[in-house]
Amino acid sequence: MEVMKKGKRLELLRFFYPTGMTMQWKLIVVFIFLITIPIITTSYISYENYVRSIDNNTRKYVGESIVNMQSKLDDHVNDMQFISKIPLYSILMQQYLAENHMDLEIQRQMDFYIDLMNNVRKDLYTVYIFNNSGNVFYRLRTDSVRSDLMSHYKEWSTKAKEVSGDPVLISTQELPEGTGSSRYVFTLVRDIKDINTNISVGTVVVDGGLEVIENVVQEMNDVTKGKTLIVDPHNNVIYDSDKKLIARNIDGYEDLSKVVDKKGSFNTILDGEHYICNYIVSAKTGWKMLVYVPVYYLYKDAVLTRNVTLTATAGIIIFALFFSIVLSFTMTKPLRKLTKLMKQVRGGNLDVSFLVKFRDEVGVLGNEFNLMLRRIKELINEIYTISYRRKEAELEALQSQINPHFIYNTLETIRMRAEINDDDEVAEMTFTLGKLLRYSINLSREIVTLQDELNHLEHYVQLLRCRFSNRFELHYEIPEDLLSYQVMKLTFQPIVENAILHGVEGMEAIVQISFVARVEKNQIIFVIRDEGVGIDERRLQQLRDSLRGEASVGGAKSGVGLRNINQRIKLHYGEIYGIEIDSRPGLGTEVRLCLPYLKG
Asked: Is Protein transport there in the keyword field (predicted)?
């Protein structure tokens, strides 16, 4: 399971950070993402917020406006109701209506009252008053009277009587004109009762023209570029801005089922076009007013803003692409130069150099590259020098190889003669010298243990004791755990020899020589110290210069021996190891030899 998760993480990493893509193209992709994603996201959020704000503000504005529109329509209906109440308080008019006949005086008085009622609201078409005999009184406000008065009289009278004097609103009716056109009115009827007897004496009919409604809603339609629909509680259309549904019943109209509260809004589609519909239900008349606002008109500015934003975004992306290409090319140019130089180095050309112009990360990398090349060339020179010196040493060793068997046999012959002549001292010296010779010219072993080296040193010291008549004493202070330490062969013999020769020289007393070994951190320090006459300052400086390879010691055997050992140590172990020498005239000489301590 864990392996599968790691595999998915690797696939995801390769998707977002493709390994085969150059650094330049990676930078371009990063720049484009860093620029375009925030711009696109910001533009999208701004557009959505803008659209949402327009939607909310529109619903709020239209909602407030239709409340005012409904209030104006209710005021108009109130006026119509007020007009219809005038006959209820006119005793004289009621007396005229109670007369079931008509004469000139009654007609003149009724005309006066009707004219008075018509002038209350000049935007009403007309007022009609019927007596119970079916006689009608009216004053024309148009060129013609309604042709359907008598056909609707009984219906109106019945409805008015059913509600006992309350007003009754009749939905919009279509009235044909003589010119072949039609006009529309909505009607309010009320039963007229005698004040004294409370007996019905007639019916008042007030016709209202749709111009009243149209004047109220037209301003809203002009602002929103939408349309308005008004229906009564029985779903009969009172008013329609499109003039298509007026005076029709629309029980199956889908949007009416969405009118569930006193007021609200919803989204709808009419004839394939999207609308925001705000509605309100009149508490006085029960009329439902639906105001439709086309979405395309609302979002026209938002769409324009979106298109401008998209155009600007596209321009910015193109500019960002151009800028990122130029910038990535500029940033990766030093890296490409460095890569080219690395390929030249891989081909063997080390005589190259990176020109550092800036102190940034690439500049640091370039400096390190130049330092690396310099170090590589130094190492190559060191390896060449080491190889050259080794070849010289091997040549010298070959040149110094005189037939060892001949020397062994000769020394053995001398030893046998000495024993025959009872000269044990010569025989012992000859035997010891043979051991030294075998140890020195044995080419099969270049690295020996410290114990082997000390054994060889002891043999060599035996010969020197014979030479100098035991005028020195050599003391060892070496920890037992260091005896198995691996060293180069013939490392200590020249140093001890130099200490004995210079220590005994000019001294009558026995000279004390010490050989001390100790471990300091990761190094082994060997110290060979004598109590001889010491070395003067000039000679000591010559020896030190010789150890550093800066000058010759004038052919002195001891100086050459120390220099050769020092060079062998540095070639084998490294430049930080080698020999140091210190001396004071009259106090003796101390030679320190430093080797790496390799545990195990």
From this structure: no
